[in-house]
UniProtKB/TrEMBL annotation:
<dbReference type="InterPro" id="IPR036390">
    <property type="entry name" value="WH_DNA-bd_sf"/>
</dbReference>
<keyword id="KW-0238">DNA-binding</keyword>
<dbReference type="InterPro" id="IPR005119">
    <property type="entry name" value="LysR_subst-bd"/>
</dbReference>
<dbReference type="GO" id="GO:0006351">
    <property type="term" value="P:DNA-templated transcription"/>
</dbReference>
<dbReference type="Pfam" id="PF03466">
    <property type="entry name" value="LysR_substrate"/>
</dbReference>
<dbReference type="GO" id="GO:0043565">
    <property type="term" value="F:sequence-specific DNA binding"/>
</dbReference>
<keyword id="KW-0805">Transcription regulation</keyword>
<feature type="domain" description="HTH lysR-type">
    <location>
        <begin position="5"/>
        <end position="62"/>
    </location>
</feature>
<dbReference type="InterPro" id="IPR000847">
    <property type="entry name" value="LysR_HTH_N"/>
</dbReference>
<dbReference type="InterPro" id="IPR036388">
    <property type="entry name" value="WH-like_DNA-bd_sf"/>
</dbReference>
<protein>
    <submittedName>
        <fullName>Transcriptional regulator, LysR family</fullName>
    </submittedName>
</protein>
<comment type="similarity">
    <text>Belongs to the LysR transcriptional regulatory family.</text>
</comment>
<dbReference type="Pfam" id="PF00126">
    <property type="entry name" value="HTH_1"/>
</dbReference>
<dbReference type="GO" id="GO:0003700">
    <property type="term" value="F:DNA-binding transcription factor activity"/>
</dbReference>
<dbReference type="InterPro" id="IPR058163">
    <property type="entry name" value="LysR-type_TF_proteobact-type"/>
</dbReference>
<keyword id="KW-0804">Transcription</keyword>
Length: 304
């Protein structure tokens, strides 16, 4: 080894393997692709070994890199745990809290809630992470998460805030143009908006006896907000939250029973962070706002 590598180099190394590419690592770390590339080159120079095979398709980790990956990930976990313990020991009323939720909740539900949160806690800065993939609280990718599934890690504090019905949704202009379906048979003959890679809708349809495939979705996206905007534009029938549908001008609940269980809403944080006055204050304030939304007492922002 020529010299001890800086931790930032190891961090980029782990991200390249986890994400499978320089571009993916750059996105996950919020850095540029050339910076990640330089980090890898510097790490190899510091260690005096090669870690990746270069080709036209990108970087492929060699056996040495794969052996190093697990201890580096373990070190990342230990450092994240140390950061959580340190944050939990802080008692100041100011500081920053990082909150993650789906893109749909982040864009259409949180703005109204955060208005009240900011009035209650003006000294606390809040970072929002809209993401349709779960952020890892144990790796400190967020302090507080709004989940639409029950978290199972023992290290987390969770609160079940309620359940939101899921319904088929269309804009009134689409229904005026194509008519309103009255049964599941009618529904599948319409322009259905669905996921691109996720097969959640397809699997549920098959459970009901309908052989749906990806090709049935004339417009596809894995971004929940984008799908919602397509529905609002009158481009077809999608699936969404009953509460949000009723609060969005022009949207109508399609009168077809899907047989879909309601979507649970959970608020969660790391157990050690829950001892922080700052984290607890934002956690409780967001919980109050979500309680009001679920009960139908609030009117979330609905951008046009």
């Amino acid at each position: 080894m020529n010299r001890e590598p800086d931790w930032a180099l190891w961090r980029s190394f782990a991200a390249v393997i986890a994400e499978g590419s320089l571009s993916g690592a750059a996105r996950s770390l919020g850095l540029s692709q050339p910076t990640i590339g330089r980090h890898i080159e510097t790490l190899e120079a510091d260690l005096g070994i090669s870690l990746f095979e270069r080709s036209l398709t990108g970087l492929k980790p060699n056996p040495t890199a794969l052996r190093l990956y697990e201890p580096v990930r373990a070190a990342q976990s230990s450092l994240a745990e140390a950061a959580i313990l340190a944050a939990g020991a802080q008692d100041e009323s100011g500081g920053t809290v990082r909150l993650t939720a789906s893109t749909l909740i982040s864009n259409y539900v949180l703005p109204e809630i955060l208005r009240t949160v900011r009035q209650l806690h003006p000294r606390i800065a809040i970072e929002i992470v809209p993401s349709d993939s779960p952020e890892n609280l144990l790796m400190r990718e967020a302090d507080i998460a709004i989940r639409m599934f029950r978290p199972t890690q023992l290290e987390l504090v969770t609160r079940h805030l309620g359940d939101i019905p899921l319904v088929p949704v269309a804009h009134e202009s689409y229904l005026a143009r194509r008519g309103t379906p009255r049964s599941l048979d009618d529904l599948w003959d319409h322009d259905i908006l669905g996921f691109d890679r996720s097969d959640a809708i397809i699997l549920h349809a098959r459970a009901l006896g309908y052989e749906l495939s990806r090709e049935h979705f004339l417009l596809r996206s894995d971004n929940q907000t984008h799908l919602w905007e397509l529905v609002k534009a009158g481009l077809g029938i999608g699936f969404g939250q009953l509460h949000l549908t009723r609060r969005t001008p022009g949207l109508v609940v399609v009168p077809v029973e899907l047989g879909v269980p309601p979507m649970p809403v959970w608020l969660t944080t790391h157990r050690e962070l829950f001892t922080s006055h700052r984290i607890r204050a934002i956690y409780d304030a967001v919980a109050d706002g979500l309680d009001a939304y679920i009960s139908g007492a609030t009117a979330p922002v609905s951008p046009r």
